[in-house]
Amino acid sequence: MLNDSQSENIKAKILKTALLAGKIMMENGSEVYRVEDTMKRIAQNAGEMDVSCYVTATGIFIGLENQQRVMIASVEARTINLEKVVAVNEMSRQFADKKITLHELAEKLEQINQKVPTFPLWLEILAAGMISAGAMYLFGGVMSDFLITFLIGSLGFIISVVCKSLIKLNYFDLFIASFCIGIMSIVAVKYHFASQIDPIIIGSIMPFVPGVAITNAVRDILAGHLISGTARATEALIVAATICAGIATVFNWLGGWL
User: Could you tell me which residue ranges the Threonine/serine exporter-like N-terminal domain spans (predicted)?
Assistant: First the structure.
């Protein structure tokens, strides 16, 4: 039989573990309804059936009904890393199936939170180039521009990575990368390395387009999470506007040179 102190410690552990799971998912691109569902399932599988949680784009709240115990976590950095989301979901399922204990779940979530699963930089650059070249062709480009679009998309991605590491200012790396993509595209067409400028630019900026963020924003709004959905949609629009601003600046500066 647990005394009051032990019972309170267990309840605090349950809330803290569920809160950490929600924070990891929210910071890495999960939908709000999925975050709330995962947090509730963790608490309920741990024996606390009367749990309430509220998730927004910038903060997470969880508490036990009829008890003065609420925990809060701020969502500071938001990115898209679906590997972490999948990892949290997998740990939640294992806990539900009694394959791991609450303590083991908390430890594994800490490991997921600290570990940043990424692909090698060279592979990310290669993928960015392939996405750029493929999108260029889909948007009406010609195969003769495939290689130059691959190079421009890869270089644009490299510029974005370098800017992000040197300048800690949100969205600035996207502006610089799209600006450089615009310049390289104009130069390529001007000196006859490529034939069509529009498909090249469209394809090269595709690695930066916030497709997942826009999709999640729509899904959140349709699920009734208007605040989080609107916040995510606003952030996605800012990203899109930043990319457009970079391209527009180039055309305003060098458009007459073509």
Answer: 17-251
